[in-house]
């Protein structure tokens, strides 16, 4: 062959030509000539129905064309192929191969074969092991099923291990391979492989190709049946004693004449004329059909003498005959007419038969229409009120004579349109299934659908998880503490898990429980030297590993309480006790809570606080008294704790107890792995994005720019890109070989507002979708028969692009890229409630509840406590000696921090006591402020030391705002604030002092006095200046989340009781000015008058709701609050007890 010098452009042509033809397998035995591309930009593709594997490619330059380009010819040479074939007739014919007695055991065994058949059922292979264990490979309804049986007489068929393949009864060769490696078995059908686990008793196989159960006789051909490297068909063919032939087995494969026809679309039909023999009155029509559609016309013909039509059609996957009655449906069917008798048989092996007596006269002039009806002049003879049949038909017989479809193809018989003759072009789009995560695949002729119900995933292929990947993500959506499903790897293979999320003020904890988190006592026993404890976690192994890996910090409490029970023997010797932790089976650990990993130490050794300085653990002192070694395990590689072994428990007097707490992790490495781009030329680049068939991309961004590229990855022709095209539009662009496609989401609000926005893009074989925040998602369906594989080969660019478009400015290594993004409170600060302040964190935000009476992740949780009559909480604002030491003639100017220039009081209460003291504020100058419930229970009162009472009607919701009491005298030097009983009332008259000594019985919640939260300080901050008498326990009595609607209706609200902070409070005891008193009296009178009018109006409306609740609980003439002049007994909550918010 001559050598040619190929110019650059011609070399490009050669590469394109080679790239095209490498995607197509040419059959060597058939002379096939296809025209290739004529330039360097055009791609020409030819798809063959059956691939042929070639070994060599030969490029032959042929000639130069007039434009100076070279023409090439590509030849493909196949491999030498050896074929050993056996044919089985379906009448219990088989081959039996038995291993020799001296056969050595091998770690790996393989069985491979090829088969082809027209029957959709039959036993291909039966392999027997030990103790009656066996495997059976069965073709059933066109699929291969692998069964495990124990006892060959089992009538149930055994346990189904796996199902693989589809449409395998198409008379084409299919390759099957079984590989056993120990107790694992790989089953491969054509190019699809699944792995299953098999019993160890199947380590040796005795191979049969005979049916073990009835009605499973294989009828077809096997080729190259290999056991490891042994060709069993060759052994049988040469009469080997190891292979027994049973029944009629021949060593050739006859090719049955079976011409299939494919009805491709809504214009498809096949028209056949009647036979001359039909004049005798005996008519027989038989065919096989296959389809995915639940409806479609199979056959129709006219009845001219009766002016009628017969329709045989599918409806809702049922076969129906429209003359006067309907029948049933499936695959193999035969229709026969004899005089006035019509018989329909569906799948005769299953015995579904229907009979109907009706006159159906057919003659040689009759025309049969299969699949549909023609258009034009012939349409007058055929009307189709149903859908056109889409699928395949074969073995079409009229009066037991096979219809020659090749003549039909040559237009020598009948008529047709839009048919593919001599092939069945049906495609099983559910094998293998593109539905992920257990989604159920169903299909029609042109597409498939995935049912994602109860899978925890969504999308066209059940790809994207409906759950968040961490508790941190749930918190940023405003969720409170509780159980949530966590999908740690998003769209990955790990299943979602139910985890408790503890949303605290500073951290968000993922809590994973196990089977024993309680303190467990171990008694000494002379009969056993060790005690074993095993811990089973609520999450699966892969879930645990993923949670620990993606968390910033994990910990687990490990406590050991001991009495004459040591942990370590000596520093050099083996320890008495240890624990096992870490991924998989875990590893033994000898370090205990609070100590460094890998040491035989406890936490006290690091703090130099062990009972015996000569030992590194308290328990190693071996004292005859209870002590403990407790602490947190924080080394993630050793978590979780899987088991515990306690050794020193057999001596007399030895006692021990242990506790292993739940696994707790916080921080999500994947949630706030943010980067800041401050230049348009800045970007990050990563390895090529992998997502050939299914891929999803999600991220958060914030920016002030109106456009920019978020990410881009290019291939030779394919690409994927997500960009901000304008301030209100995000575009997801890609090309998988079918041409560029754009999915766009336009928003009603600008996205360049420097707030976080979420983008979620997904592309799969069915569609592409794009979501932005909570705006409606946009989708774009993929072409039905287009290319599916996304082929990329360059780097993935984040925040920029390789195609020189405008990069992204904002948050989402080159110069201009910084780790982290500030400004979380601008997006999430609104989640902080009840005067909580949003604080910026490096990874997210937190709500500071220091100035709030509430607690919790968002300052949303009320702090409540149940009070008894003896309960008292005193919050000390200033000690007496500080006052005397810093006394001054102008205390208001010196002690402005304890001078009330205006106050804001809020609290909730629930009680059936009347009268009752809610709040008492005193000063060193005998000034006071009292909030109380009055004697008859009908009014609440705020009492000031000026001698006036502010009445608040309890039957309505009232809001007091800007209640100003003005004077030139200030409420100075506040000493304390008291909730509950006042032990030493100072400056109160006798009546008030007696009332203060009665205390309060009921529930107080959310108490807030200016910036002071005395109840929260007493319950949660014991180091604060609080004195508590009588036991005080936090409770949920003041929960603002009622369990029912009635509770919501009986919760009254009075908020915003505040004074102008620019005006001081009055104290008439220290001032005898009548003028001041008069001004105050006028102000109070005007205010109370306005309140009375408002109260009358609102109370009349509120009474309707109250009566709905209490009418059934009390007589009509009873008082709503049946309180006496003395405090009522709080023995049981009353139905009439109400909750107030002040």
UniProtKB/TrEMBL annotation:
Fibrinogen C-terminal domain sequence ranges: 462-514
Pfam families, A to Z: Laminin_G_2 (PF02210)
Membrane topology: Single-pass type I membrane protein
Intracellular or extracellular location(s): Membrane
Annotated region described as Disordered, given as residue ranges: 1108-1142
Biased composition (Polar residues): 1126-1135
Signal peptide segment: none
Keywords: Disulfide bond, EGF-like domain, Membrane, Repeat, Signal, Transmembrane, Transmembrane helix
SUPFAM superfamilies linked: Concanavalin A-like lectins/glucanases, EGF/Laminin, Fibrinogen C-terminal domain-like
Organism, as annotated: Astatotilapia calliptera
Domain Laminin G: 85-253, 259-424, 673-847
Annotated GO CC locations: membrane
PANTHER family: CONTACTIN-ASSOCIATED PROTEIN-LIKE 4 (PTHR15036:SF40), PIKACHURIN-LIKE PROTEIN (PTHR15036)
Name of the protein described by the UniProt record: Contactin associated protein like 3
Matches recorded under InterPro entries: ConA-like_dom_sf, EGF, FA58C, Fibrinogen-like_C, Fibrinogen_a/b/g_C_dom, Laminin_G, Neurexin-related_CASP
Domain EGF-like: 426-463, 822-860
Residue intervals of the F5/8 type C domain: 1-79
Source taxon at top rank: Eukaryota
């Amino acid at each position: 062959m001559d050598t040619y010098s190929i110019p650059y452009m011609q070399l490009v042509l050669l590469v394109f030509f080679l790239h095209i033809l490498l995607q197509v397998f040419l059959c060597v035995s058939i002379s096939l000539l296809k025209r290739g591309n004529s330039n360097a930009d055009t791609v020409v593709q030819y798809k063959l129905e059956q691939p042929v594997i070639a070994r060599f490619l030969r490029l032959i330059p042929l000639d130069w064309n007039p434009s100076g380009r070279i023409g090439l010819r590509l030849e493909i040479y196949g491999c030498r192929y050896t074929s050993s074939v056996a044919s089985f007739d379906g009448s219990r014919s088989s081959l039996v191969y038995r291993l020799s007695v001296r056969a050595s055991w091998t770690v790996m065994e393989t069985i491979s074969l090829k088969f082809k058949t027209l029957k959709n059922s039959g036993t291909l292979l039966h392999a027997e092991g030990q103790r009656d264990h066996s495997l059976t490979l069965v073709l059933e309804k066109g699929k291969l099923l692998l069964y495990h049986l124990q006892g060959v007489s089992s009538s149930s068929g055994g346990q189904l291990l796996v199902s693989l393949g589809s449409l395998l009864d198409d008379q084409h060769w299919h390759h099957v391979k079984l590989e056993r490696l120990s107790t694992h078995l790989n089953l491969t059908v054509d190019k699809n492989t699944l792995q299953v686990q098999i019993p160890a008793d199947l380590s040796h196989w005795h191979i049969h190709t005979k049916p073990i159960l009835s009605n499973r006789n294989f009828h077809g051909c096997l080729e190259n049946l290999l056991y490891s490297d042994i060709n069993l068909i060759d052994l049988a063919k040469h009469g080997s004693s190891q292979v027994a032939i049973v029944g009629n087995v021949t060593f050739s494969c006859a090719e049955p004449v079976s011409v299939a026809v494919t009805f491709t679309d809504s214009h498809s039909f096949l028209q056949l004329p009647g036979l001359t023999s039909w004049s005798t009155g005996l008519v027989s029509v038989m065919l096989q059909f296959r389809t995915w559609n639940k409806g479609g016309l199979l056959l129709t013909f006219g009845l001219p003498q009766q002016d009628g039509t017969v329709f045989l059609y599918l409806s809702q996957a049922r076969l129906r005959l429209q003359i006067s009655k309907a029948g049933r449906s499936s695959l193999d069917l035969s229709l026969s007419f004899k005089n006035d008798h019509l018989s329909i048989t569906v799948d005769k092996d299953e015995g579904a038969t229907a009979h109907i007596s009706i006159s159906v006269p057919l003659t040689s002039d009759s025309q049969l229409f299969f699949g549909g009806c023609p258009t034009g002049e012939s349409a007058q003879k055929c009307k189709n009120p149903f859908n056109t049949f889409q699928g395949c038909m074969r073995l079409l017989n009229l009066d037991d004579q096979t219809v020659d479809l090749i003549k039909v193809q040559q237009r020598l018989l009948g008529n047709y349109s839009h048919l593919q003759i001599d092939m069945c072009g049906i495609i099983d789009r559910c094998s293998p299934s593109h539905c992920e995560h257990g989604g159920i695949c169903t299909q029609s002729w042109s597409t498939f659908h995935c049912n994602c119900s109860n899978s925890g995933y969504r999308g066209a292929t059940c790809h994207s998880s409906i759950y968040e990947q961490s508790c941190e993500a749930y918190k940023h959506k405003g969720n409170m503490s509780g159980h949530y499903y966590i999908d740690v790897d998003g769209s990955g293979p790990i299943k979602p898990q139910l985890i408790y999320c503890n949303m605290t003020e500073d951290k968000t904890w993922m809590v994973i429980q196990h089977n024993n988190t309680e303190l467990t006592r171990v008694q000494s026993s002379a009969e056993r030297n060790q005690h074993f404890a095993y811990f089973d976690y609520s999450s699966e192994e892969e879930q645990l590993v993923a949670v620990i890996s993606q968390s910033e910090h994990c910990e687990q409490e490990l406590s050991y309480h001991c009495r004459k029970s040591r942990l370590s023997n000596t520093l050099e010797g083996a320890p008495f006790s240890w624990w096992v932790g870490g991924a998989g089976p875990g590893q033994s650990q000898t370090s205990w809570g609070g100590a460094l990993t890998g040491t035989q130490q406890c936490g006290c050794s690091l703090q130099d606080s062990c009972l015996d300085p000569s030992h590194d653990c308290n328990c190693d002192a071996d004292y005859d008294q209870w002590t403990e070694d407790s602490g947190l395990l924080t080394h993630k590689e050793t978590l979780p704790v899987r088991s515990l072994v306690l050794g020193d428990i057999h001596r007399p007097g030895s006692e021990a107890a242990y506790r292993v707490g739940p696994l707790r992790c916080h921080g999500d490495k994947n949630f706030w792995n943010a980067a800041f781009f401050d230049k348009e030329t800045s970007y990050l680049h990563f390895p090529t994005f992998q997502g050939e068939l299914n891929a999803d991309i999600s991220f958060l961004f914030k920016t002030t720019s109106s456009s920019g590229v978020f990410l881009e990855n290019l291939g030779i022709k394919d690409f994927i890109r997500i960009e901000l095209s304008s301030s209100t539009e995000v575009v997801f662009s890609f090309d998988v070989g079918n041409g560029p496609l754009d999915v766009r989401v336009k928003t009603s609000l600008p996205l360049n507002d420097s707030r976080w926005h979420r983008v979620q893009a997904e592309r799969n074989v069915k569609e592409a979708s794009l979501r932005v925040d909570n705006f409606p998602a946009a989708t774009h369906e993929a072409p039905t028969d287009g290319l599916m594989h996304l082929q990329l080969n360059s780097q993935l660019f984040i925040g920029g692009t390789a195609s020189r478009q405008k990069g992204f400015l904002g948050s989402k290594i080159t110069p201009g890229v910084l780790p982290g993004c500030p400004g979380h409170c601008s997006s999430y600060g609104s989640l902080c409630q009840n005067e909580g302040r949003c604080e910026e964190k490096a990874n997210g935000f937190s709500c500071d509840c220091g100035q709030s009476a509430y607690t919790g992740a968002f300052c949303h949780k009320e702090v409540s406590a149940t009070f008894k009559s003896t309960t008292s909480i005193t919050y000390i604002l200033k000690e007496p000696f500080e006052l005397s030491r810093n006394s001054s003639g102008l205390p208001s100017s010196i002690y402005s921090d304890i001078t009330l220039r205006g106050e804001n009081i809020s609290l909730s209460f629930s009680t059936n006591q009347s009268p009752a003291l809610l709040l008492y504020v005193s000063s060193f100058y005998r000034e006071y402020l009292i909030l109380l419930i009055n004697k008859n229970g009908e009014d609440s009162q705020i009492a000031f030391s000026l001698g006036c009472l502010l009445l608040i009607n309890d039957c309505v919701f009232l809001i007091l705002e800007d209640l100003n009491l003005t004077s030139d005298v200030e409420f100075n030097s506040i000493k304390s604030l008291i909730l509950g009983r006042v032990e030493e009332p100072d400056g109160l008259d006798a009546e008030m002092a007696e009332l203060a000594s009665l205390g309060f019985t009921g529930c107080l919640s959310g108490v807030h006095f200016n910036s002071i939260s005395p109840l929260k300080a007493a319950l949660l901050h014991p180091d604060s200046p609080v004195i508590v008498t009588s036991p005080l326990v936090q409770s949920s009595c003041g929960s603002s989340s009622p369990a029912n609607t009635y509770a919501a209706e009986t919760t009254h609200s009075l908020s915003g009781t505040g004074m102008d902070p620019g005006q001081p409070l009055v104290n008439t005891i220290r001032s005898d000015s009548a003028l001041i008193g008069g001004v105050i009296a006028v102000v109070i009178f005007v205010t109370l008058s306005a309140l009375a009018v408002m109260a009358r109006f609102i109370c009349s409306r509120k009474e309707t709701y109250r009566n709905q609740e209490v009418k059934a609980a009390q007589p009509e003439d009873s008082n709503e609050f049946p309180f006496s002049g003395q405090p009522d007994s709080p023995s049981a909550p009353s139905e009439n007890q109400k909750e107030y918010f002040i």
